[in-house]
């Protein structure tokens, strides 16, 4: 029985924190000791869920929602300490760069330092592959003799590094070859977006791709190596989590970046021109947050083309992500029902229009591929209509209930705890919200009063009041951002939507995950039937 097939508790709770926030001497959280310590903390505190943000490779300012690939992993999460364990770095080579030792992630500094570690590890990796190949040739005759004289069943042998690597490339060939070439071309263009490449690089035919791959073979192989190591380290961490009763909630944006291997490899699936610039882009219409709406700029899908392939690209994407997690939150779920379409030439989102999405067809295809019970969480926030709710409920997908939204509205609303259905996920807040302490300090006095009366509190430990209310919700799942566990204020929030700079840098320290805190959370979990 696989770890993810164990019987899960009916009511579960957990913590939302991205791996970049973990303690680490390398300036950014990674998949090393800090990640394993966090899993152990979850177990001690009686939790069963760990929610992350998207895990793809990022560009400017480290936003996990603008990735170079819907399939690839984030190189910055690779642990140099694990590379030492794997014999791909010496301790001296893995020595932390003092310039990166900061309280928040300095992405330019971290990217430079991590690339140095990874380039060095790649050299050692190639040496190991050569050595493995030589040893395999020398030992092949001996292995054949041993197998022929052994009357028992042939015992399962551990794959060599070379065999493990080749198996990984074979299993991921449907995306990784194009991704590695895309990143190699991007490197040759000094990081420029695909729209600024030469015409022969933007839309290469098979012959041109072959020539590019031969020309850039060293960089292509380096990119393949990075992905192999990321997936290897992640799967080891996931197994450790599952073996300790912890299930991972992943996250994918509904749209992809225009500067991505997805658009470059499959331009036929997106509304783009021959030069890969978008013709129609995503956004949301004007609302009380913004008089001009939000213009995201991601190229929109050609859903009719996706439907003709029975949504094969999407199904491959979700299957790939479900190798990394046990549940998957899909951002901006409402776009499967209807989405806001804006011309790429528009300066704001005002002049867009609602266009029908793939609706039931998409989820029927997904059920055919994955089974009836989809491990999907619908991010059903924003402008939500009855038709969106009906789509969600027809496929029995849990939606999201944000406590802050319930109490910043003095009237009855769907986010109030007594209105939460069992098939939903309750959050104190998300990565896009202020921390609970920061929110309470800023919200209107009349809303503060509503909180105090509902939770029977004076507000002096408002984060614990919200956590107790979240755990006590009828929702089967309850998730709390780690900033609320620590009672941190607005200075420590992960993201401020609409603000381009200064996000995604939050980090915490090892000593904050202490046994006293774990015991208190465990007692709350038991009290509210989630332990």
Plain-language structure description:
This protein has a domain at 266-378. Helix 4 (161-171) crosses helix 5 (173-188) and helix 5 (173-188) packs across helix 8. It is built from 19 helices and 12 strands. Residues 1-5 and 151-155 have low confidence and may be disordered. Helix 1 (33-44) links the parallel strand 1 (12-16) and strand 2. The protein has helices at 33-44, 80-85, 107-149, 161-171, 173-188, 199-202, 206-215, 217-243, 261-265, 303-308, 312-321, 360-370, 386-394, 403-407, 436-442, 445-455, 462-472, 482-486, 515-527, and strands at residues 12-16, 49-51, 247-252, 280-284, 294-299, 327-330, 338-343, 353-356, 376-378, 399-402, 424-427, 477-481.
* Largest beta sheet: strand ordering: 9-6-3-2-1-12-11-10
Mean pLDDT: 94
Give the tally of β-strands: 12
* DSSP helical segment count: 19
Strand percent estimate: 5-15%
Radius of gyration: 24 Å
- Name the shape in a single word: globular
Distance between the termini: 23 Å
Low-confidence stretches: 1-5, 151-155
Largest sheet: 8 strands, parallel
Secondary-structure content class? alpha/beta
Residue share in helix: 40-55%
SSE layout:
Elements: E1 12-16, H1 33-44, E2 49-51, H2 80-85, H3 107-149, H4 161-171, H5 173-188, H6 199-202, H7 206-215, H8 217-243, E3 247-252, H9 261-265, E4 280-284, E5 294-299, H10 303-308, H11 312-321, E6 327-330, E7 338-343, E8 353-356, H12 360-370, E9 376-378, H13 386-394, E10 399-402, H14 403-407, E11 424-427, H15 436-442, H16 445-455, H17 462-472, E12 477-481, H18 482-486, H19 515-527
Parallel strand pairs: 1-2, 1-12, 2-3, 3-6, 6-9, 10-11, 11-12
Antiparallel strand pairs: 4-5, 4-7, 7-8
């Amino acid at each position: 029985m696989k770890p993810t097939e164990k019987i899960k508790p009916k009511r579960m709770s957990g913590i939302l924190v991205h791996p970049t926030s973990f303690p680490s001497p390398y300036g950014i959280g990674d998949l090393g000791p800090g990640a394993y310590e966090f899993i152990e903390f979850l177990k001690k505190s009686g939790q069963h869920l760990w929610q992350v943000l998207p895990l793809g490779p990022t560009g400017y300012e480290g936003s996990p929602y603008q990735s170079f690939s819907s399939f690839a992993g984030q190189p910055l999460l690779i642990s140099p300490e694990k590379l030492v364990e794997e014999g791909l770095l010496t301790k001296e080579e893995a020595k932390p760069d003092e310039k990166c030792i900061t309280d928040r992630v300095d992405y330019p500094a971290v990217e430079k330092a991590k690339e140095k570690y990874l380039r060095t590890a790649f050299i050692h990796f190639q040496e190991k592959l050569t050595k493995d190949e030589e040893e395999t040739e020398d030992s092949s005759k001996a292995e054949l003799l041993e197998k022929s004289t052994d009357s028992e069943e042939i015992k399962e042998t551990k794959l060599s590094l070379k065999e493990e690597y080749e198996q990984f490339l074979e299993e991921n060939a449907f995306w990784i070859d194009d991704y590695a070439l895309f990143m190699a071309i991007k490197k040759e263009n000094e990081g420029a977006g695909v729209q600024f490449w030469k015409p022969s690089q933007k839309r290469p035919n098979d012959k041109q791709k072959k020539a590019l791959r031969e020309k850039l073979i060293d960089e292509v192989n380096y990119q393949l190596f990075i992905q192999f190591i990321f997936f290897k380290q992640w799967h080891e961490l996931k197994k450790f989590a599952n073996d300790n009763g912890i299930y991972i909630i992943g996250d994918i944006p509904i749209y992809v970046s225009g500067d991505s291997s997805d658009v470059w490899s499959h331009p036929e699936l997106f509304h783009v021109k021959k030069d890969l610039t978008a013709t129609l882009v995503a956004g949301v219409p004007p609302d009380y947050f913004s008089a001009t709406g939000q213009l995201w700029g991601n190229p929109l899908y050609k859903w009719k083309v996706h439907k003709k392939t029975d949504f094969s690209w999407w199904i491959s994407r979700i299957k790939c992500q479900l190798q990394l997690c046990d549940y998957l939150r899909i951002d901006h779920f409402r776009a499967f029902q209807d989405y806001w379409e804006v011309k790429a030439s528009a300066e704001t989102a005002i002049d867009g229009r609602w266009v029908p999405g793939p609706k039931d067809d998409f989820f029927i295809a997904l059920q055919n591929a994955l089974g009836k019970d989809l491990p999907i969480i619908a991010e059903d926030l924003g402008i939500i209509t009855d038709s969106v709710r009906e789509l969600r409920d027809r496929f029995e997908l849990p939606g999201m209930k944000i406590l802050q939204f319930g109490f910043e509205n003095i009237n009855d609303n769907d986010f109030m705890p007594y209105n939460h259905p069992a098939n939903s996920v309750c959050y104190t807040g998300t990565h896009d919200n202020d921390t609970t302490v920061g929110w309470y300090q800023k919200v209107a006095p009349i809303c503060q009063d509503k909180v105090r009366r509902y939770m029977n509190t004076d507000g002096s430990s408002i984060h614990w009041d919200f956590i107790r209310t979240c755990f006590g919700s009828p929702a089967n799942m309850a998730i709390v951002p780690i900033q609320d566990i620590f009672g941190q204020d607005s200075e420590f929030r992960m993201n401020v939507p609409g603000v381009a700079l200064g996000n995604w840098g939050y980090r915490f320290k090892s000593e904050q995950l202490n046994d006293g805190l774990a015991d208190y959370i465990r007692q709350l979990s038991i009290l509210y039937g989630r332990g």
